[in-house]
Amino acid sequence: MINDDHSSPDIVAAPSPAAARRTVRLPNISGAETFVQEINVLQLEGLLFDFSRKHGDKTLELSEQTDGTGRRVRLRFDPHYQRPGILAYRVLQAVFRKLTKEGYPFEDTVSFSRKEIMELAGRGNSTGGAQGQELYRAIQQLRRSDIECEFLDKENDRRDRLSFSLVNSALFSEHKGRVQACSLVPDPMIIKSLNDRHWAAFNWDRMKHLDPVAMVLYKQLFWQMCRLAGRTVKQLETARSDHPMVVKANLDELRYNKDLGDIFAHWLGGLKMPPRKGKIVEKYGARFEALKTTGLIRSYTIEKSSAEGGFTLVVRPGKTFIADYLELYLSRYQPQLKYDSAHDRASIAEPLVLVGHFFQALSGQSKMDTDVFSEKDRAFASFLIGKYGFEAATQFATFAVAAAKADRYPVRQFIGVKQYVNAWLAGRDLARRQQPTESQFADAPHSQAIRPIGELIRGLNFARSATSSPPSVQQ
Question: Which residues pair with 170 in a beta bridge?
Fold first, then answer.
């Protein structure tokens, strides 16, 4: 029996980060979908998100708390978008799921199509009206909530106190108020930590149908029982008693207990623990029964603790927990080909970056006050990139801005400069025939395609104070 969240034991011996990158592998489960999440973010979820549908703390802008590992965490929420809620939590799960599907090593950008983001976030196929605005607000909550805490750098084996947000930047395209596509840039520290293999792995098929509160309980209990199981396996290895049958028998006897007050304080942000056992079972018993149905636990009890008015949750692992733990953490990592993410980059991320570059050049401002663009503009940018490449399309955008200003043409949309394509092509062909020297290209835009797409999106430099809404809402 254990109640210790402060240490971070090795669940399985892992190769060095450099060696891990060469293998390009992720934990894999036969016949099921794996879900990988960065561990620092997993530990912070309960403090960052408000799982109360009533959102009783709408005025909360600054929060200083201690997470389950004992580290001090300072959270600052945007007064306009407020604390991230349930939909923002679903979006974050969608981000990690997409990163997992795209494979190792992890890219610095996650792009979603119109249907994909809503399906992954549990909103069916609708992206219009209020639902599209809710999605936009949820992503802005992730982007504009500042987190200050110690962040474990696994590669260098040290903890640094850092300030970051879960999502650094986001670009959207919309048509008649409906979100058509978006590209999100997670904080570089999160991507680096994932590539250093500082992750927790789960069986997505077992938890994908759970509601957010039950999903939080599933992930936290699975992770804590994995840590406990890791200690047990190490003891068996030391005693040379690590036969598979012996390991399974010992794991079957495990028991994990956790103070319920800590669960509500550190795992279930915004929810208050009922004062009586009967009320706890009435409000949350269905969630624990759902965990039993998944096979994560085979039993649970709520017992009075020594603290006045306190209760302790005691669970025993189920058969599917043991199976998933053995396959995810003890079996050899199965090879997993990297998912081809080039399509998302070429059809969503790069076109949105190109449109952003055009409007930034058009405004002449160092900071942009909107991150939502017309779907027609994104489609036009996608056409240019597909036909001429990202570098040439960027050169066209710069040329078009100069041409429109010279003609005093009041351009409002990127597709509005389509008329300058032929002039740009003619000038480019003439320049090629004249075989210009290197000095003639001194002021020409250099290729940005070799840079990570997330770096390009962050380079658009959106105004931090902007509270932009989808264009249909602004109008």
Answer: 184
Task: Please report the pLDDT score of residue 48 as a whole number.
Answer: 92
Q: Map out the domains of the chain as residue ranges.
A: 17-330, 342-474
- Residue 173: Cβ-neighbour burial (10 angstroms; 0-12, 13-18, 19+): buried
In sequence order, what DSSP letters do the residues of 152-167 get, joined into one string?
EETTTTEEEEEEE-SE
As given in the structure block, the two tokens for residue 275 are 């004062």
**Predicted pLDDT at 472:** 44
Most confident range (mean pLDDT) of 21-25, 305-309, 387-391, 432-436 is 387-391
> Percent helix, strand, coil in the chain (nearest 5)?
50, 15, 35
At residue 347, the pLDDT reads 83
DSSP 408-452: T----SGGGGGGGHHHHHHHHHHHHHT---GGGGTTSPPP-TTS-
Chain-centroid distance, C-alpha 325: 23
Cα–Cα distances in angstroms (integers) from residue 26 to residues 50, 215, 341, in the given order: 31, 22, 16
Determine the Cα–Cα distance for residues 331 and 321; give it in Å rounded to an integer: 14
Q: pTM of the entire structure? A: 0.79
- Nearest-angstrom CA–CA distance, 357 and 353: 6
Cα 42 from Cα 96, distance rounded (Å): 11
Whole-number pLDDT of residue 434: 65
Least confident of 49-58, 155-164, 232-241, 441-450: 441-450
Neighbouring C-alpha atoms within 13 Å toward the C-beta of 259: 14
Token pair of 376 as six digits: 């027609």
Q: Which of 184, 151, 135 is nearest to 470 (CA)?
A: 135
- Nearest Cα neighbor of 68 from 213, 220, 214, 227 is 220
Preceding omega of 105 cis (within 30 degrees of 0): yes
Bridge partners of 25, per DSSP, are: 335
Q: Are strands 178-186 and 199-203 parallel, antiparallel or unpaired?
A: unpaired
Least confident of 5-9, 80-84, 315-319, 371-375: 5-9
